[in-house]
Amino acid sequence: MAFPIPAHLPRKKDLDVSTTVLSKMSETSLKSLNHELASSWVSELETAIRQTKDRIHERVQADLPAFDRQLSSSKSVQQRLQTLSSNVDRLQDVLSNPETGLVPTLIASLTRHASLAQDAADANALQEAMAYLAECKQEMRGLTELVESGRLPEAVEKYQKMEHLLAQRQPSLLGTEVYVDLQRRFRAAKDKADEQLNEAYSRSIIVNASEIIIRPSVQVRACETVLALPAVLASLSKTNLSNLMNTLRRDVTTHYVDFLLGQAASVELSSVSSIAGTMEHKLSVFPAPHGGELLGNRVDNVASVFSFLSDHLFPHLPPKAAFPITLSRPLSHALLDKLLRPSLPSSQQDLPAFLKLVQHAVKFENDFIRGVLGDESGGQDVKTWADSVGQHYEKKRRVQLLEQARALIIREDDGSSFHAEVLVVEDELLNGAQPPTGDSNWNFDDEGEAEKDGWGLDDEMEAEPLVQGPVTAASPEPEPSAVEEDVDDPWGLGDEGDGAVADNEDASTDSSAWDDPWGDAPEPIPAPKVTKAATRLERLSNKGKTKDTWSAIQSPVPVPPPPSTPAAPVLDSVRQRLPLPKQQVEKESYLVSGRAKELFCLVENTLREASALASSNILPHNHNTSMSPVGTLIGQTSALILDLYRGLYPVSAASKLASPKWTLGFSNDCVWLHIELGKILSLDTLQTITRGKLVESHARLNLLSECWYDETLTQQIDHLYSVLDNTEAFVGTAEQERFDECEEAVSQVLQEVRKFARQVKPVLPKTKYYQAIGAVVNAALSRILQDVLALPDITEVESHKLNELCRILNALEGLFVEDPNHPSFVVAFVPQWLKFSYLSELLEASIADISYLFEEGALVDFDIDELVNIVRALFADTPLRTNTINKLLQGHPVQS
């Protein structure tokens, strides 16, 4: 692709002859260049020149008149240009000629004029500087004479005038030696005058820690001049006077306000003549013993000080001096911070004397702060505080009471405790089977007697691990003693393994825990004779003997199971077979710490103090509706004490609250406080606001008790669940290794429940104790029932193994036996007990056994789906199993 030729370049056809010839020359090589070729190029050029001349001549001849006119015009322009150039040259010579030119002559004239003007200005400046220096010299001479003679007020006026004069400085004197020397001499004289004034002030007003001396006049050092104190103060500069007044205010406030209001002292006033013959006024302060001191004397001492200053100092101050007003706020603050607030009494008996002191302080404020010092606008701090003196007293008492409560709450436990009684409505069966009643196990000593082994249990238990929080997360190992006792018969089964519960180890262990740990040891109780549970086909052999068959499960139902327990309801058919109960009221005792009793005594004393203060009419009633009535703050402190206990004790005793006996003990304390507080709320003497606060605390204490109780059980249940997690839902128990793991887990559950029972038995009331262990046992049984019933297939070996595992927990029935002559009442507190007992039988029962039990209504605890699943898991698929399942699917039979 060819490079495009720019448009402004001539094309080849428009090239002139010279360009054409040059192109040819450039294209001709050295070998082809010869004479003839060069001659042809010269001929071409000459021909082109000749042709160009001919064209020019033709062009001129074609318009000759116009050519002549342009020619003549060009010649005229050239002539005028020559004339203009000659004239410019002459003008340049006229202006710039060094000798006769206009510009050099003008510059020379201006130079001479500037020199003359400078000489005149120098003369004027010299004259003004000399006059200025003469005036300064005269003023400086006068200032020096005044300073030397000690006439300091006149010297101050003189140096102020000269200072103004020096401010009008002359530019010609700046930096000169004479001006610098003048300034130096002036500063020396001024500093000497100020120094003499400060020295005169320091000898006129003397303030130290022991005395104040004020001299109305003072002689100047090294002079015979005597200056009056007003003249000295008036002569001081504003800055200097302000600094001196600030120092004076600080000294007066520190040594004669704070000191006199903070401790006992005596003040003496005197006026004497000095050696120089001048009068001086003196105020002296002497410390006094504190014994028998009246606090009103401190106010009188400060009044004496300000009377002294008002008589001998304030009149000498300059007219517009604000020094007295600057003392008002420090004085008001000192009255409050050094006298009134620290002296605020802590008892009602000291209030009358304190109120007199407050009235005295208010009068002092009105007479001195508003009168003498002149603070009319802001001098009412003491009056404002005095109007609310009742509120301040109650606030101080509130802080003291709360501090007393805090010390009581965080105090190390001293082991003191007592037993409180609670009324429980129990159900008594008419057939002679007695529920747990008040016996030696709960016949505690007198309520006020210190218990020996309740809160400071001496059980040889392993230490619970410490956790943070309101409940324990402990996972204690089984006690060695319990494990050793169960070596021969670890599950409490009979020799024949027929399901008889022989919980000798548990009975012997629990008897020591229940045999009145606060009194003398009772007679040993023989192991209870628990009715043997029916096994396999023994129920079929006892057909028609309903009374004997059900005697094993006829247990009293003293209270319904706790609502928080994850358990199924008790069998309806069992309830129908049981005789109708009748109610009886029983007294049960539970352990309460001495700390709770002391705390409640503090609450009662606080309420008594509030009531006594409100009825005494010692404090004035506030007409301001925004303030609460007298005694309200102290009355509300009773609720704050309980709030402080609820919030602080779980934190301060966090390490102890890792154990169930302590958490349930704290729950007991909250219950007792709740009951006792309810007795107080039944009174009509409480103020409305106080009652409202106590009602809130009353409800919160009850809620807190329930929460700690429920959380303790929940934590224990979670611990049992974690132990049962090792069973892995009882899958594969046919293998010996898996069976050993499941056996160990179930045995550990048994030991953990027994250990939990031993810990909480001395703490809880009887009924609540059975509810607690019943909830824990019921949760463990429910978990096992859920896992076993969920197994899809159970072989014959597994059914025997599972039966053995279930029978391990039959030993827990001994926890619910008190009288060996009566059956246990485990059913009343463990709703899943019957269901769990029948599960162990179903695991080894035949289809005929299951059908019979189902028809008799003995399996109503089981859901239909659960029964169908266990039949399918236990038996092979046969027509008999199918018929049995169809019968089960028709629902439980209706019992008449």
- By DSSP (H or I, 4+ residues per run), the number of helices equals 31
Beta fraction = 5-15%
* Strand tally: 8
Radius of gyration: 59 Å
Q: Which percent bin holds the helix content?
A: 55-70%
Strand order of the largest sheet: 1-2-6-5
Provide the structure class. alpha+beta
- What's the story with the biggest beta sheet? 4 strands, antiparallel
Indicate the overall shape: flat
Q: Which segments are poorly predicted (pLDDT under 50) over 5 or more consecutive residues? A: 428-581
Mean pLDDT over the full residue set: 78
Distance between the termini: 119 Å
GO biological process, one term: endoplasmic reticulum to Golgi vesicle-mediated transport
Pfam families: ZW10_C2
Organism: Phlebiopsis gigantea (strain 11061_1 CR5-6)
Domain ZW10 C-terminal helical: 745-888
